[in-house]
Design a protein that fits this description.
The chain is α/β, with parallel strands linked by helices and 405 residues long. The chain is built from 13 helices and 17 strands. The protein is 45% helix and 17% strand. This is 4-hydroxy-3-methylbut-2-en-1-yl diphosphate synthase (flavodoxin).
Length: 405
Amino acid sequence: MVIRHKTHNVQVGSINVGSSYPVVVQSMTNTDTEDAIATAIQIADLARAGSEVVRVTVNTIEAGRKIKEIKQRLGDMGINVPIVGDFHFNGHKILAEVPDCAKYLDKYRINPGNVGKGSKRDEQFASMINMAREYDKPVRIGVNWGSLDQDLLAQMLDNNARLQSPLSLEVVMQNALIESALQSAEKAIELGLPENKILLSCKVSQVQDLISVYRQLASKCKFPLHLGLTEAGIGTKGIVASTAALSILLQEGIGDTIRISLTPKPGESRTQEVIVAQEILQSMGLRSFVPVVTSCPGCGRTSSDYFQKLADKIQNYLREQMPIWRETYPGVETMKVAVMGCVVNGPGESKLANIGISLPGKDESPVAPVYIDGQKDVTLKGERIAEEFQVLVENYVKTRYGKLV
């Protein structure tokens, strides 16, 4: 059982974040925010895939002006998901010049390293915090390895050089990340922003660095923490790196929101990062989002690819149905389905699932027993096993979870 690191609870739009609530899945658009239609469509896609908070870039005055329209378009589509504005360099100007941007965003993300330089930094940071206070909005103070406050880093490096046994550059940079986040949070509180309106993140791109930074950060504060590698990478590299880092921290009870910052392959849906985040949380038993399909990897006994195609088809079908089933059949996200390829583990895994099928392997009888809640229910055979099994799954969902409506 995972015991969560105790944090304040923060309300972000309709979503509650903090140790009293489940870990929240977040994502981010890659559209030009000035294109309100494209951005609203992508936000809707992410929300339907299961993203509970969506961040958008707000980098120009015109992008700020589009926030109200984006929210209205989402409302027309029946989408109610909190929108976070990601500000760098000119956020103070945008929020001041576009009151609707400040009003319609559900949270502001401020990067202390990009809020301003020299004497202007404190003034511009204060301006953004004051806007958050005026409109009663939470703020994520998001420090980033690639845009760390250089003045703070230089000061900490100078102090380190005076030590009898100086720390490594890596450790000093980790300490600077943490110090930047905590100092900025204290400044926000001094400016009147309540503690329960502040979230923190300290993002880096390497697994071991992320684990080290967040362990230290969690030990030093009670603010909700947003987890994620800042640039996870593309394909399996990004998925594996994110899973390796976040799983360790989540198991230690650290983390209140997560985002998987995958580089999409050309033409790949942005929703992939949402699916990976959900699968990390579900695999760890922290949350349930979609029925799980257990399937074997295949071996010499499973010379046919039939079970592979069926497992993929059923998994896709279940995920596609979830936007409807989530409202109609509460609890269906905890269902377990088994699609097995031979008699070795097939019957056993099928009996452990809510509903499972054991397909015939090489040299086995051309029949497929189906088990429902641990008991053999029917044996399928012929050319339409896949279609008949899907019907059985549909009927199981209606019968088992429909009673709860």
